[in-house]
Design goal:
alpha/beta, three-stranded antiparallel β-sheet, 12 helices
Length: about 350
Amino acid sequence: MTRRELLAAAVWCATGEAQDSPLRHMGGAPAGFPMRSRAARASGKSFDFVEYCHGLGFGVVETRIDLSHADAVKDLRQKLESYHMRGILDVPLPRDEAGVPVFDAALKAAREAGVQTLHTAMTQRRYEEFDSLDAFKRSFERNQKTIALAEPVLRKYQMRLGIENHKGWRAAEQAAWLKRVSSEWVGVHFDFGNNVSLCEDPLETMRSLLPYIVSCHLKDMAVEPYEEGFLLSEVPLGEGFLDIKGMVAAIQKKDPNIPFDLEMITRDPLKIPVFTGKYWATFDDQYSPLPGRDLAHILEIVHRNKPKSPLPRTTGMSAEAQLQLEDENVRKSIEYARRNLDL
C-alpha cells in the first residue's frame, strides 16, 4: 500500500469512527484546511466545507456563504438541520452608516440559515501591518466604530458575534474594549495560540478574555528561537506547549456548550521578530503597554519548550505532499481530541 493509500485509510478510519460518535462541540475552521480546498478547486470541483466537516464527525462548522442568495441560505439550513450541526458564519461588518442596512439583511438571512453565532477577524498581524503607534490607534478606533454600528443589529436579531484575537490586540486591550461595549451579543472568538505573537502566555490570554468567550479556534503551538526573535507554528493537538486539556476545561466550565473549531494550519512557521524596532513600533507605556517582563516570560517559554519534532514547513513541497501533511495533522488532532477532550 502506498503512503497516499495509507493516509487515505487513516482519514477514513477517523471519519468512519466519527460518524458513530460525533464531536458535538468540535468543528472546523476554513483556515485550517487550505490544501484540501485547493485540491478540490484544482480538480474542478467545489469544496463543500459543511459536508467535509460532517464527514470528519464534527458537530460544528465555521463557514461563509453568499447570504444574498436565497438558495445558499436554504441549502445551509437544510444541511445544518439534517446533520445536527451548529454553524458559525463569517459576515462582513458595517464600516459606516451606509453599511448598516446591508449588515441587517445579512443577519436576517443568517437567522433564516439557522445560524446563531458569527465570527470576525478584524485585524492583520499587528507587528507586520503597522509602522507607528498612531497607525495602530487609527485602526483600533475604526474597529470600535464598526462594532458600535453592528451591536444594535446583533441585539435586534439576538445573534452573538465573536471577535477573534487575531494578532491585533493584546488581551488586556480587547477585554477593556469589550467591557466598554458591555453587550451580551459582542464577545470573543478565542484563538488558543495567536497572542503568543504578542508576548502573552496562552493561559493568561485565556484568563483575560474568558468572561467574553463565545466560540474558539482550537489549536496547539510550538516555538523555536531564530535570529530576530522566535518562530511560531500550529502543530497537531498534544504536540505543542499549550495546556490544551486545562484550557478547554476552563472554557467549558464557563459554558459547556461553547464550540471549538479546529484550526490546525499547516504552513511554514511564522516569524515573530521581537528583537526588531518595527515589532515595538505600536507599543508604548501608556496607550498600549507591553511590559519587559512579558517579553522575558515568552522567551523563557520559547527556550524551555523545544519542539518535539521539526516545525512544520510546506515550502518546496508538492501540492500532493502538502495535502498529505495537512490531512495527517488534522487526523492527529481529531484523534487527540477524541482521547483527551470532552467535545
